[in-house]
Amino acid sequence: MALLAHILGIFTSFVVPLMIFLIKKDEDAFIADKSKEALNFHIAVIIAYFALIVISIITVGFGALLFPVLGLGVLILGIIAGIKAHDRVAYRYPFTIKLIK
Asked: What one-character-per-residue DSSP string does 24-57 give?
């Protein structure tokens, strides 16, 4: 389930990690921790996307060149986190805001 929180989070943003956290939080501490980690990461990504929108408006579209970079980062970090979760190894996303504790 921790693997699914990370991998499906790539495609569904915070929705699947939130569902997994709410369903499994009392059953398995590892799954709860990893789904919270994925949830925090995807909330931070949403904030970053909004920041890029503002930057794109200010720079008359040049900031939009960073959207693919952010998307690629989400893909790569999600896969790395999923592999680590499959091996039951603790992984922390870089640049993540800890909103859900």
From this structure: HTTT-HHHHHHHHHHHHHHHHHHHHHHHHHHHHH
The answer to whether 63 touches 55, Cβ cutoff 8 Å, is: yes
pLDDT in tens, 28-60: 999 999 999 999 999 999 999 999 999 999 999
Q: Which residues of 21-37 are buried (b: 16+ CB within 10 A; e: fewer)?
A: beebeeeeeebbbbbbb
DSSP string, 79-96: HHHHHHHHTT-----TT-
Residue 32 near residue 24, CB atoms below 8 Å: yes
Cα(75)–Cα(56) distance, integer angstroms: 22
